[in-house]
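B., you asked whether I could sanity-check this one before it goes into the benchmark set. Here's the sequence:
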Amino acid sequence: MTAFLESFVFGAANSVHCACMCGPLAVALHANVTSALWYHVGRTIAYGALGVGLGSAGAALGTEQLGAPTAWVSFVLALGLVVLALVGERGAMHIPWLGAAMQSVLQRGRRLPPKARATLLGLATPLLPCGLLWSAFTAAAVAGSPQGGGAVMTGFALGSLPLLLLAQTQAGWLARRFGPKTMQWVQRGAMLLAAAVLVWRGVVSLQGESCCH
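And here's what the prediction gave me:
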């Protein structure tokens, strides 16, 4: 797998979590499919651009010297999955100014037309205090290059898109169909399964790297 595919798996496994965390916030500002799609355009652009920046910063600090960067991406993502599956968002660090910044965005967004409001919210999604999102940030930083960092964050955005879009447009049906405990067990099970896959892929990447030297 490439860093993009590793992160896509990470995003897909966490799409239940993303739907629970980001879905209600997004639904509050836009409820139709068109606006939801604009939200994801903004979200994907923001994630990709931030990933390029993180990958550049990591490369400047020497991460391009790490052997098998895809393996490091896999291990970082797997660690984030295990931590969040076991302790939930209690393990996430809270940064006060992030909440204030998001509130400012929400206030400004209420004065905008629906499409612009949805896009603005998508662009501001990196401000959310989400442990899984910060795991993806860390993975982007160790990807070894700007391109690798961008691929990690874009893969995360696209992998989590389908179920998050469903939550945004079918929130009422999901609430009736699945209870919170069921969703929690599905979420944790998906995280741990994906973590096992990512660890396996990381080991395979390291073995492949050692065979080439």
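One thing to flag: The first helix runs from residue 3 to 13. Otherwise nothing jumped out at me.
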